[in-house]
Predict the structure.
Amino acid sequence: MVVRTLAWTIDERAYRPGCPLAMRAAVRIVAIGLLLAGVVFFFQGIGIIPGSFMTGRSEWAVIGAALVAGAVALFWLSGIAAKKRRPGER
């Protein structure tokens, strides 16, 4: 009988190619990058962050809002993927 610790099981799943845990983490890292870029673009577009060609241009505010919405959607979808597990998977 093989006894596996929780830490070993998590490490095994995190470094295996095609692993849902690693994919979820990668998607969330991308979502954080999109969120940060979207916030900066939005605030530059509405003129709060000065010093760029994007300052005061409404199209950058719209692009920033779209990036924030995309980041929120990625977080939401990665949460749904975390809830969908195959039978027998821990």
In short: Residues 44 and 51 are 9 Å apart (CA to CA).
